[in-house]
Design a protein that fits this description.
Structural class: mainly beta
Strand content: 35-45%
Number of domains: 2
Strand order of the largest sheet: 7-22-9-12-17
Mean pLDDT: 89
């Protein structure tokens, strides 16, 4: 909490400083910051990642934090059936939560959901919120399921977004010359492009099928962001 110095009044270490009724947050020696009453400035991003993986985050101060937690997207599958028809089932998108919580200082386990084949789709902050990842498409017209709505372990002080993801779609195409290949996006992201589902193209010919590997059709990992807002009441 204290970058360089500790402040004392007699033998008592000062944790809070006031000028009249106004709280002092920073003390400078010339141009150098030598003390502040909290580890983070208001609006400071404590953690942010859109890359799949797990980590332990040490939150240094009690306070109100804005939390973003978006599950990863599921993957599409294309099934060619030669001389018959092609089947496409796209992936669902992850569920998402954006809101504020009063968090206590301590260590929190985090996971940003993975959109990779076989990856763990859920995103979570242990003891706070888990957002479900989107389901994979299943061959022969079973679209990927929408990611589950967030499960809250704490009561938020404010909620901006709390929703399940969006399901993928399924369809057929590419039967002979009369029906063109079918091309579809996956389930739409609930926040920006994070956690969107994978899409692709299906035809009766294997060489005309592709999924999850280009542009807007690539499924996206989840997203977690934690921003310090203010002191707890």
């Amino acid at each position: 909490m204290n970058p360089n110095y500790e402040l004392y009044k007699g033998s008592t270490q000062m944790q809070k400083l006031y000028h009249g009724e106004d709280k002092i947050y920073h003390v400078y020696k010339g141009e150098d910051l030598v003390w502040r009453d909290r580890a983070y400035d208001k609006g400071e991003t404590v953690y942010e990642s859109a890359v799949a993986g797990t980590t332990n985050l040490n939150i240094l101060d009690d306070g109100v934090y804005e939390v973003y937690c978006i599950g990863a997207g599921g993957r599409a599958v294309a099934t060619p059936v030669y001389d018959d028809i092609g089947y496409l089932a796209t992936g669902g998108s992850g569920g998402g939560f954006i809101g504020k919580f009063e968090l206590t200082a301590g260590t929190y386990a985090l996971q940003v959901g993975s959109a990779a084949a076989g990856g763990s789709r859920n995103s979570y902050i242990t003891g706070v919120v888990t957002s479900g990842g989107g389901g994979d498409g299943i061959a022969r017209l079973t679209a990927g399921a929408a990611g589950a709505a967030p499960v809250l372990s704490l009561t938020p002080t404010e909620t901006t977004l709390n929703t399940a993801g969006n399901a993928g779609v399924a369809g057929t195409g590419g039967k002979g010359s009369s029906i063109p290949p079918i091309t579809r996006l996956g389930g739409a992201s609930v926040y920006e492009t994070y956690g969107r589902g994978g899409g692709g193209q299906a035809s009766e010919y294997a060489g005309s099928c592709w999924t999850n590997d280009r542009g807007d059709y690539i499924p996206q990992d989840g997203y977690i962001k934690i921003v310090y807002v203010e002191d707890s009441e």
